[in-house]
Amino acid sequence: MRTVFTSLLALYVTSAVVAFPRYGSLAGLSERQLAEIIPTLDAKLPPQPPGPQGFTGAKLVDDAAHPWRPLRRGDIRGPCPGLNTLASHGYLPRDGVVTPAQLIVAVQEGLNFDHQTARVATYLAHLGDGNLVTDLISIGEKTTRTGPDPPRPAIVGGLNNHGTFEGDGSLTRGDFFDGDNHSFNQTLFDQFIEFSNRYGNGFYNLTVAAELRFRRIQQSIATNPTFSMVGLRHITIYGEATFPVNFFVDGRRTGAQAGQLSIPDATSFFRDMRFPRGFFRSATAGGATGADILFNAHPIQPGRNVGGVNNFVEDQSLGGILEPCRFYTQFVNTTIRGLYPRPTGVLRRNLIINAGFLYDALSPPDCPQVFPWGQL
Ligand code: HEM
Ligand SMILES: *[C@@H]1O[C@H](CO)[C@@H](O)[C@H](O)[C@H]1NC(C)=O
Ligand SMILES: *[C@@H]1O[C@H](CO)[C@@H](O)[C@H](O)[C@H]1NC(C)=O
Ligand SMILES: *[C@@H]1O[C@H](CO)[C@@H](O)[C@H](O)[C@H]1NC(C)=O
Ligand SMILES: *[C@@H]1O[C@H](CO)[C@@H](O)[C@H](O)[C@H]1NC(C)=O
């Protein structure tokens, strides 16, 4: 009897474990859960990051080899309009489950992210939200549901996971507190249009970005008791607001038209996850150029609401846009170590390798590398 019971239990545990998605994050799991799940996964040795592109000028990216296609049931999309668009055009796997190497190639090729920005964004995301054993990450969550989903741990949200890369105060998405909805929000996009009309004469530019960025932070402080903008989020909240200016404007627009994003083109990316027809990517490879302008227009220090709305308290402990070394050190040594306090085997190896890729990409000046899990 005992043997039957134990083997039934083993079968139950095994089938529960087999269902663990190959792209689900292992962050925060107990040592026992890790010991059950990791042997069921197809472990990979993380490859070296791909190199920079040869050609970095403007070119047609809405091309015949990358047709836009509508979502199929089960395709994953998330909080990032850039990655959603790249997946819907096939620069990334259309199902939204990707490798770090695929991310780097796609953001360089399809939207002209420069090599450093591509690697930094990729390894921040992978360490925070990826499956470090299988070397896979999902760009969000499954989009279409035709029936009740089987119960599933919250940890498979990929880039939707709150508090790692995804954060509060987004331009076109609500906060986690407002219902964990990472979909495009038309009400917030109407505000994007209103600000583009008010400050940009009908276009989104860096002047608009500075004002809208500030407004969204104020709105979150006033309505979200859990609003938080510390460490990585203090950097991305300013950086991401420049991306529509730097990357969603057709690369053939020059002179006075450069840096001015039309509302139809913005709608195409944000809402439809689609390049404007015949879109040429940016004329130069780049990153978050202009983030300092947005910050200096309304310099809000890192911080969070404490104990309710309208009580924003500064918190520099995880660094921020003005403190890259503290940000790097705390991100790896506190945030990611906190998600993986005692990794062993292939998980430990791959954490060390990916944290090394992040350090190489950031090359933070005068900032020693940290090794929370030792060295290989
Ligand atoms: C490896 C590369 C990338 C990763 C891992 C990434 C990840 C993310 C994540 C997690 C967010 C959500 C943050 C939040 O607002 O809560 C986000 C937002 C955003 N991303 Fe990306 N992204 C990448 C590349 C790109 C590219 C290539 C573009 C465009 C050229 C882009 C444009 C944006 C924009 C505009 C937002 C802000 C959306 C909003 O505030 O409503 N991203 N990204
Ligand atoms: C969109 O955002 C507005 C403003 O924050 C909010 O009131 C509304 O509930 C959101 N809509 C959805 C569908 O989440
Ligand atoms: C999320 O937002 C989308 C678009 O605004 C809406 O269609 C959907 O019903 C919302 N889902 C939830 C769970 O609120
Ligand atoms: C944005 O557009 C407005 C209106 O045309 C203009 O006054 C402002 O200088 C522009 N800002 C940038 C950074 O292009
Ligand atoms: C990293 O964290 C450990 C454990 O909290 C601490 O002892 C060490 O000083 C930290 N290293 C740095 C560089 O902050």
UniProtKB/TrEMBL annotation:
Keyword Oxidoreductase: yes
Keyword Oxidoreductase among UniProt keywords: yes
Tree of life domain: Eukaryota
Domain Heme haloperoxidase family profile, first and last residues per copy: 64-295
Cofactors (names): heme b
Alphabetic keyword roster: Heme, Iron, Metal-binding, Oxidoreductase, Peroxidase, Signal
PANTHER family, per database record: HEME HALOPEROXIDASE FAMILY PROFILE DOMAIN-CONTAINING PROTEIN (PTHR33577:SF16), STERIGMATOCYSTIN BIOSYNTHESIS PEROXIDASE STCC-RELATED (PTHR33577)
Example GO molecular function: peroxidase activity
Similarity field: Belongs to the chloroperoxidase family.
Signal peptide (from-to): 1-19
Entry-linked InterPro entries: Chloroperoxidase, Chloroperoxidase-like_sf
Gene3D superfamilies in UniProt: Chloroperoxidase-like (1.10.489.10)
Entry protein name: Aromatic peroxygenase
Source organism per UniProt: Coprinopsis marcescibilis
